[in-house]
Structure formats: C-alpha cells, structure tokens
Design the sequence.
C-alpha cells in the first residue's frame, strides 16, 4: 500500500536537549519478540528510552511524524512494506534523523546498500547486546556504524577503484531485484510481492526473469528454492 506524503510531513524538534533528558528511540521490526527484547535492552540504559514500536512501514512513518524520535531502529524485513524503502523515505524527509538497521540478513549484501539509501549504521541481530548499544549510541552521536568486516570490504572496493568483483552472485542484483528476491524468500506470491512493493504484477515478473538470469537459475522452482535458502541464511543448493 502506498503512503501519502502527509504521513511524512517533517516535524519540528526542539532546538536542544537538556543534559538529563533521555534520548528517544523508535523500534521498527515485524517480530513482537524482537521488539520486546530491544525495548528491555534499551530501557535498561539510564540515558535511553523507547518512544514507540511499529511493524510496518506505514506505521513507522506515522510514528516518526508523531513521536519525533531521536533515532529509529529499522529491520530489513517488515510485515508490510520494505526496510530499504523506509530508510530512503525517512532520509528524504528527515535528513538529520539517525537510522540504524538491525537485521538477520547478510551484512555483506545489505549493509552498503542501506548506507547508500541513507542509513547511519547496520548491525546484525546476531551481534552481542553491548555491541548493539555501541552502534545505537554511535548513530545517535552523529557517527556511522558498520562491522569491521563490512568496513574492510568497503575500503577494499574504494581502493580497487571500482575493479572489485564480488564472488556472491546476489551482489549483482539491483536494489529492486534484491527486494523481489527477499519477498520470494518470505513466501510471497508474485501478486503479493507486487502489492507489497507497490508495483504491477508484470513488473515483478520482469524482475523475476532478470533475477533468474543473473543467478543462473532456469526455472521458477529453482528461484523459489534459492530465495528461501538465501532468506533463511542457508546455502543456495540446500534443501528448504
């Protein structure tokens, strides 16, 4: 479902914060148990508090406008909508809002894309809780956070002057193709994917064909198996 621009009307935040004022964090994740765990972790800190939770992109946009958080934690996968598009939209409407992506999805594939879309940091859900708090405070303080592995990879790409070639075929996908692969891995049909990404069925079918070609897959069944395994973090050839 598309969202009207009124949901993202920029709010006017106070010019400054008092020394003792807690910094307010919005959690955007489609799993209640994850949101609950993050809330407990964040609110155990004397200087932080959770100002709201959302499980869809639409809810997140509305809550950003209403709650005026100091930072937003965003998952790649949402109940409705997409974390990548949410980051792009949030950055367009709130240039100074810190955005930290927290996800189970491979940082080697997503981290650089999310930073390019406007995120201030990317951290895996497998990270230790103290590392998550370091990442959150880093983006709250205006910095950028990625793991050492991602940082080294980005430096290597920069140093190679564009000659760097990834061994992972998923890296060859465009952002939109990656979103479609993600939806297939979640078990969504072509029509459901079209609705989730606000695209036509024909456009999604075209993306599916390009994905198969880039990943050297011949059939829709092979694409489904590849996507399910990739989404679950298994080897592409493994049995779902």
Sequence:
């Amino acid at each position: 479902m598309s969202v009207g621009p009124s949901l993202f009307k920029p709010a006017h935040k106070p010019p400054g914060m008092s020394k003792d004022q807690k910094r307010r964090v919005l959690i955007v994740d489609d799993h209640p148990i994850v949101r609950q765990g993050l809330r407990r972790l964040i609110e155990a800190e004397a200087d932080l508090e959770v100002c709201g939770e959302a499980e869809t992109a639409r809810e997140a946009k509305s809550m950003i406008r209403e709650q005026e958080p100091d930072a937003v934690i965003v998952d790649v996968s949402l109940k409705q909508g997409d974390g990548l598009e949410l980051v792009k939209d949030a950055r367009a409407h709130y240039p100074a809002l810190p955005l930290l992506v927290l996800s189970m999805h491979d940082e080697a594939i997503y981290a650089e894309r999310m930073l390019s879309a406007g995120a201030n940091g990317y951290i895996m859900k497998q990270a230790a809780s103290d590392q998550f708090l370091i990442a959150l405070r880093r983006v709250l303080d205006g910095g950028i956070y990625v793991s050492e592995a991602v940082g080294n990879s980005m430096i290597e790409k920069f140093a190679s002057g564009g000659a760097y070639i990834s061994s992972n075929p998923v890296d060859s996908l465009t952002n939109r193709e990656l979103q479609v692969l993600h939806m297939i891995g979640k078990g969504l049909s072509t029509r459901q994917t079209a609705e989730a990404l606000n695209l036509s069925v024909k456009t999604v079918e075209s993306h599916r064909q390009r994905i198969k070609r880039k990943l050297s897959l011949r059939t829709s069944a092979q694409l489904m198996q590849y996507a399910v395994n990739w989404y679950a973090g298994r080897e592409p050839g493994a049995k779902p």
The longest helix spans residues 201-214.
